[in-house]
Amino acid sequence: MLTRLFLICLISMSALVAVGQTIPLGSAILQDYLRREQLKGNFDKTFSFNYRPIVFSENGLDSAGLPNEIKKYLGTKLSQNKFQLSLLPIDFRLAYDHDHPDSRNDGAMIRSRGLQTYLSAGFYAEYGPVSIQLKPEFIFAENNQYQGFPEKPRHWESTWLIRYQFWNLIDEPERYGNGNYSKFIPGQSSIRFNKWGISLGLSTENIWWGPSIRNSIMMSHNAQGFPHITLNTQKPIITKIGAFEGQILTGRLEASGFNPPRTDQTFRGFIAFRPKPDDWRYLQALTFSYSPKWISGLSLGFTRWVQMYHETAKESGEWFPIFSNLFRNNESDEFGFELSQDQAAGLFGRWIWQDSKAEFYFEFAKNDAAANLRDLLVDTDHSRGLTVGVNKLFNTTDPEAYLQFNFEWTQLSQTESRFARNAGAWYHHGNVRDGYTNNGEVLGSGLGPGGNGQYLEVSWVKGIKRIGGAIERRVHNNDFRTQAFSLDFTRYWLDYNLYGFFDFQHDNLLVSISAFYTHSLNYQWEVNFDPNGSPFQYFPGKDRNNLNLDIKILYSL
User: Fold this and answer.
1) CA within 13 Å, CB half, 75
2) Which helix (H) or strand (E) holds 454?
3) DSSP H helical segments within 335-425, as ranges?
4) Tell me, what's the pLDDT at 150?
5) Which residues contact 8 (CB under 8 A, 6 or more apart)?
6) Which residues contact 68 (CB under 8 A, 6 or more apart)?
7) For 60-113, where are the E strands, in sequence order?
8) Which of 120, 224, 256, 553 has the most neighbouring CB atoms within 10 Å?
9) pLDDT class for 138, splitting at 50, 70, 90?
10) Does residue 3 surpass a pLDDT of 90?
11) Residue 148's closest CA among 173, 168, 165?
12) What is the predicted pLDDT for the residue at 45?
């Protein structure tokens, strides 16, 4: 319904189009540049970077202070009267995974082995308070076969049963079909009415909430964008007590249409796979942040989302669940309707110190509603996810160049609170069994359910140019490992990633080249286990290596 309404509005209003400028989430080079410029004191310090995409327009942020070599990547102006039009840059991406998929925060691109390409272009227009952005996306992936979750005897039927206990609670296919994959979607498109820094509209854009750079727990561009109605700020709303930003949206989430592997797998005669409901999901979410006037550079915020199947919302008439039942004791039927909803809530914060050219940020979220405030205070660790990060620029002998240090730590696996009560894995749900996903990928952190990660980056930066490297330690679905191999401490599936990257500008091109090598220990939780050996004997694992290449090109017309 939302998709059809969006397309109808787009066609009917296209006659008006003939300048605002936005930075879609895929344009990471520009976002990272602006974030560095803010640390140096060269960009609006009231903008929190808690809400993206970034919008420059008459009603949004002012681009007047940006260098001309940056402005041209916001759009090429064709008209500057009341009727304003600009052509958006052409966005091309190429990704390649040699052995197995390892892609995150890539929007509509999918988990795929082999070559994958992305192409997007379009225009942005304003006429008075009305704006239109048309920026469709085309994706093509080779989608080659690769080694997924192995069959017996490498994993026994009982292990497959537990694996399906997880797969049955989330739409997370290993592979998108058996051949090439292609898709054409509205992408980063929107129709909006903008006034006083506030925007009301229809959109299929990707959204990022919170200050995290790599792993936003509640909303990121790890998955394909979804159609939604939105009411949001386009720039901070300045008051006598500080600045406010926020967004509320209602959207439609779709399943991928692809099943996990081996849906005929049985355990003691029973089929482990449970088909998911043939229904789309109704999502409602809100977030807001406050930057106090008296503490420079500080912003604190709150986020909550609630989703349910469309049939559930229609039968209950619960079209505004985001404003009710933050705690379970507020639910009159605690073990009835409330369990048909999937929800999460969290707090986040960011504090920048421009005199030190540094920032600290965090995100704390709960994947399960507490019974009441006392329950929240007593068992704070229950179902929690956490991201903590620091980002700092160090001076060099070149006054225009800096060394950038970024460290980000994320934990989504369950804590010791699970021994008292199991919270289930992040982004899973017992009744909303597609989980918190769209088109088969998690809308939050790319680490996925039960994932943990530590990322350390050091780079040399000068203007838009960046040369550097990083090391990352990633733990795959530790909640599954704990349940499937509770007595086997050798089964952790760990990736050690070594990154190298180079961002630069050449004429009208912005180019980002990154490559990383992955050494996967115990890939797919598999070890060379001797069934006759001691359960506490340390056995060597089944390890795999992968090479990932990612090229992003932004061309200003």
Assistant:
1) 27
2) strand 452-462
3) 373-378
4) 85
5) none
6) none
7) 76-80, 83-97
8) 224
9) very high
10) no
11) 173
12) 82
Q: Which amino acid, 287?
A: T
Alpha-carbon separation of residue 404 from 255, 350, 388, 551 (angstroms): 39, 18, 17, 21
Q: How many whole angstroms separate alpha carbon 510 and alpha carbon 93?
A: 12
Decide: 177 and 142 in contact? Cβ < 8 Å: no
Question: 427 in the Ramachandran plot: left (φ > 0), alpha (ψ -120 to 50) or beta?
Answer: left
CA distance 346 to 363: 7
Task: Classify residue 355 by burial, with Cβ atoms within 10 Å: 0-12, 13-18, 19+.
Answer: exposed
Paired with 238 in beta bridges are: 243
- φ, ψ for residue 138 (rounded to 5)? -125, 130
Map 267-292 to HEC letters. ECCEECCCCCCCCCEEEEEEEEEEEE
Separation of alpha carbons 233 and 225, rounded Å: 19
Length in residues, the chain: 557
Residue 259: closest CA among 185, 155, 181, 168: 168
Contact 352, 358 (CB under 8 A): yes
| Residue 200 in tokens | 């009301």
Whether the Cβ atoms of residue 59 and residue 199 lie closer than 8 Å to each other: yes
Mean pLDDT of all residues in 225-236: 95
Cα distance between the two ends of the chain: 35
Look up residue 395 and give its amino acid: N
Model-level pTM? 0.91
Residues near 380 by beta carbon (within 8 Å), at least 6 away in sequence = none
Question: For residues 449 and 426, what is the distance between their CA atoms, to the nearest angstrom?
Answer: 5
State the virtual CA torsion across 477, 482, 483, 487 in degrees, nearest 10.
150
What distances in angstroms separate CA 143 from CA 96, 139, 502, 517, one per listed residue?
Answer: 10, 11, 27, 20
Q: Nearest-CA neighbor of 510 among 88, 27, 139, 87?
A: 27
| All domains of the chain in start order, with CATH | 2-555 (2.40.160.130)
Parallel/antiparallel/unpaired status of strands 266-267 and 237-239: unpaired
- Cβ atoms of 208 and 216 closer than 8 Å: yes
